[in-house]
Amino acid sequence: MEANYSQYLDGKKFFAYADTDCYWEAFTTNEMINLAQKTGFLVVECKRGMVYKEEDGPILHCICRK
Length: 66
Description:
This protein is of the alpha+beta class. It has helices at about 1-5, 30-40; strands spanning about 10, 15, 25, 40-50, 60-65. The longest helix is centred in the middle third of the chain and has 10 residues, at about 30-40.
C-alpha cells in the first residue's frame, strides 16, 4: 500500500474512498495473526487474495477457529 497508494494512507488508516470519513485499517500479516491470537482465536490460515480488481491490490484473508 505504501508503494502504490501512499496518498491514501494516514498512519494505519487507508482511505479508499476520496472525500469520506470511511477508511480501512491497515495491518501486516503478523499483526493480524497476533490480534486474532490475543482474542483467543486459533489462526488456521492467512493468505493474500484480491478484493475486486487486481489493480485495487491484495487483501489479507484469515481463517480462524475459536
